[in-house]
Design brief:
Radius of gyration: 19 Å
CATH superfamily of the largest domain: Thiamin diphosphate (ThDP)-binding fold, Pyr/PP domains
Order of helices and strands: HEHEHEHHEHEHEEEHEEHEHEHH
Strand content: 15-25%
Organism: Streptomyces broussonetiae
Pfam family, one: Transket_pyr
InterPro entries: PDH/Transketolase (IPR051157), THDP-binding (IPR029061), Transketo_C/PFOR_II (IPR009014), Transketolase-like_Pyr-bd (IPR005475), Transketolase_C (IPR033248)
Number of helices: 12
Helix content: 25-40%
Shape: globular
Protein name: Transketolase C-terminal domain-containing protein
Largest sheet: 7 strands, mixed
Strand order of the largest sheet: 2-1-3-4-6-5-10
């Protein structure tokens, strides 16, 4: 199976052929995937070099001319380093772009902490009007990329990862999907966390919701799953733990409920290791998730951080 990022280049190259509004802006990273597209569309495939602030500024400039820019690099270089440009060049000027990241929270541990971005979605949460897609499979990534490019002039973030579920789920770019039903609580699995959540909750009487579009947050799906009496809700997110707990609290503000946000902890892991070791260290493998989810549903106090 290809990865989400391997799917990205061919999909967006086809979109360049199909839609004259689409442009691609790169900062050295990912250029090899667009060599053919650049020959066909030299005016709409732009490499600004290792200049991430310019990457966003150039995308915003293209948007001001009426184009639909797709802007790509590692998450830390796309959201964190040029955050002022994301806030001002896009948000303040009222123009949109499709920001497509790679490396997720810790997809390339050997790159060190400079190439890790567990706080990207939380950082975008400080800005208004962003749609955030977190696919869990390359097929879902393709669908959500097409949704993002077709979304008028909206501001959209698509978070790609080498972590993937074994199979794709039909996604529509908006709603959470119910993949298992139960009565003792609700677990929201985001993107590539679905397989681990399904394994962790096997035999537990819980509803599992699958989220690939996390902003706007599908509050209606959470309310339906919890019912009028409220319920316990566990969020399992592949980025900073607790990123969406406020969204759940807002959705259930008028009913009794408890929320546990599981995800990547704030503590920096300085022995970079492998992706699998990072997953285990943050308590996001199936065995650790089962212990934490079951303990929370049983009423025991459970830490959000591994």
């Amino acid at each position: 199976m290809d990865t989400m990022r391997e799917r990205f280049g061919p999909v967006v190259s086809r979109l360049l052929d199909e839609d004259p509004r689409v442009a691609v802006v790169l900062a050295e990273i990912g250029t090899a995937g667009f060599e053919e597209a650049r020959r066909r569309h030299p005016d709409r495939v732009i490499n600004v070099g290792i200049r991430e602030q310019l990457l966003i500024g150039a995308g915003a400039g293209l948007a001001l001319t009426g184009l639909r820019p797709v802007v790509h690099t590692f998450a830390g270089f796309l959201v964190e380093r040029p955050f002022e440009q994301v806030k001002l060049d896009l948000g303040h000027q009222g123009v949109g772009a499709v920001l497509v990241s790679a490396a997720a929270s810790f997809d390339w541990p050997a790159g060190g902490y400079t190439h890790m971005a567990p706080g990207d979605v939380a950082l975008l949460d400080t800005l208004d009007g962003w749609t955030v897609h977190v696919p869990g499979h390359p097929d879902e990534a393709e669908t959500l990329l097409r949704h993002a490019v077709a979304a008028g002039d909206d501001k959209v973030y698509v978070r790609l990862s080498v972590q993937s579920n074994a199979g794709a789920v039909p996604v529509d770019g908006a709603r959470f999907r119910t993949v298992r039903e139960g009565r003792a609580g609700v677990v929201v699995a985001v993107g590539p966390m679905l397989d681990a959540v399904l394994a962790a909750t096997e035999g537990l009487d819980v509803t599992v919701l699958y989220a690939t579009t996390v902003r706007p947050f599908d509050a209606a799906a959470v309310r339906r799953a919890t019912g009028a009496a409220g319920a316990d809700v566990v969020l399992v997110e592949p980025y900073l733990a607790g990123t969406s707990t406020a969204a759940v609290n807002d959705a259930l503000a008028d009913v009794p409920h408890r929320v546990l946000g599981l995800g990547v902890g704030r503590r920096e892991l300085r022995r970079y290791g492998t992706v699998e070791e990072h997953v285990a260290a943050h308590g996001l493998d199936a065995a650790a998730l089962r212990e934490r989810i079951a303990g929370f549903l049983a009423g025991r106090r459970v830490s959000a951080h591994a």
